[in-house]
Amino acid sequence: MSILVVLSGCSPGGPRAISASSVDSSQERPAATISGPAPTATPRPQLSSVTVIVPGSIGSFNPLVSHGATARALEGLLLPRLVRLSSRGEILPDLASSWSAPSPDTLELHLSCGTTWSDGKLITSADAVATIRAILNPAVDPGSSQLRSALAGVTVSAPDPCTLVVRSQHPVDAKLLALLSVPLLPQAVLEGVHDFGGLTSLSFDVQPVTAGLYTVQASSVLSTELQRREVTGLAPQRVTLCFGGQRCGPPNPDGAVRLMQSGGNPRASNGGERLHIPLARPVMIFLNLHQGFVGDPAVRRALSLALQRRKLVEHVLHGEAEPLLSPLVPWFWAFDPTDEVPDGAPAQAEAVLAADGWERSPQGWSRGGVRLTMTLLTTADRLRVAQAVAVFWQKIGIPTRVEVAGLDGLARDFLATGHYQAALLGIDHYGTMPDLAPLWSSTGALNVTGIHDALLDAAITGSLSLDTAEARQGYESFQRRFNDVLPALPLYVPTATVDVRGVDLNVTALRSPEALIDTIGSWRRASP
In sequence order, which ranges of 278-401 are alpha helices (DSSP H)? Predict the structure, then answer.
């Protein structure tokens, strides 16, 4: 159950937030890599140097050795991928220029031949085969157990240097394609590696062979210097990454960006601007459909209508979040803005309960001699949010008790056993190319709400189609049906807090705070 719940803090900040409707641009890539159309706006002068301060560290440039969020984001700048995921959740070409499914269990990717590693050698499908086989080998890559589980039953082969064939024991779908967005290593680097010890003894971290937008010029425990591979373009030419939240690099860079940790000064610390970027980590109230009152659809509808999400964001979260009125985040490529739950309609909530046969008294609502009450579970970091939710429900006459549990205990003792009524949780594993099945399908491994709905199941299946139109229809059907049956109540998405000076980040949303690093290719010099 641990991947269901995320401890995500919000940093105090200033008045400006990047909304989900902001413009999203693809990152710049090396010339030989597939990319989107060139921007048509009037070019601004290139950023010569940028300093980026992040709380974490990388440990290794090798994606099979270092699995932390900061390292994963940096690898997106250094190493090629077969496909990449945009901040809107779209699966986009990268090294693979196209793909097809010649049979239900086979995925064929056609690579853009001619791209080279930094040592001048061609990137071929053999590199992809070597990387994926290393991930599938627990002796070589013990840290990728979750990815390896998702790829169970998958085999890969390279019939020619420009073709990768992926065969699966299950029907191939968009989820499998998205899993292939892992960073690739050269086949030559992995030759002769049979265990994790062989990986860690490689000279890759001393002189990494790269093929991304940047190459590594120098690196230490405290910082990494990156140089852009191509001279032309608007992405920053030189980037200094400073780890552990400490300043480093040149004294007067063209731009400076600092990813803030939770807490701290509410004003920008670099003389620039403080931004709040939405994270694809929805926070919802999960409802146990097998526990008394919340099994009643009308009660679930009333609980949702009573929530005043915008007030919660403004007064409890101090503007460091965005209201969420759908199971899909608003910037997701298949999000339907016409199908959201109402926000803050307490009078309507009371009318729904009355129409469902509940009777109101000074003590609250009752039906058949049974009084309507709620118990809301949460973790300590979200206690104030849970208390605000309790106030919203009490205002429509539903007494609510808030209980706090530790993260492990909440998952083990309540969610896994079904001994809960409502639980305030954050979701860490979807929002960008969301895999809806674990949480919301009838047979989902993380289906803690007990939802069993044939229409939801059909929509989830449709959302995984490799055909974009069919996938969109599936996601839209899922959003519509979810908002009808409400197995959970969408509440808000948190934000990452970033101090910016001299840089236009050009970022709509992030999968995680550390993923800000992976967007450096889209950064531009700020307008005067």
Answer: 297-306, 309-311, 346-355, 383-395
For 481, phi and psi rounded to 5 degrees? -70, -40
Strands 238-242 and 49-53, bridge-based pairing: parallel
Residue for token digits 């000076």?
501
Distance CA 301, CA 284 (A): 14
- Comparing CA positions, the residue from 299, 326, 296, 322 lying closest to residue 483 is 326
Residue 17 has pLDDT above 70, yes or no: no
- For residue 222, the tally of other CB atoms under 10 A from its CB is 12
Amino acid at 238: R
Using DSSP bridges, classify how beta strands 422-426 and 374-378 pair: parallel, antiparallel or unpaired. parallel
- Tokens linked to 45: 């002068």
- 489's enclosing H/E stretch is strand 488-501
Torsion angles phi and psi, residue 471, rounded to 5: -65, -45
Q: Per residue in 191-249, pLDDT tens?
A: 888 888 887 777 777 778 899 889 999 988 899 999 998 766 788 999 999 998 888 88
What is d(CA 133, CA 125) in angstroms, rounded to the nearest whole number? Answer: 12
The pTM of the full predicted model, rounded to 2 decimals, is 0.86
Q: pLDDT tens-digit profile of 68-101? A: 888 888 988 999 999 998 888 889 999 999 999 9
167: pLDDT strictly greater than 60: yes
DSSP state of 183: B
d(CA 492, CA 497): 16
pLDDT in tens, 442-454: 999 899 999 999 9
How many other C-beta atoms can be found within 10 angstroms of the C-beta atom of residue 483?
19
DSSP 414: I
Distance (Å, rounded) from C-alpha 249 to C-alpha 237? 14
Q: How far apart are CA 274 and CA 256, in angstroms?
A: 12
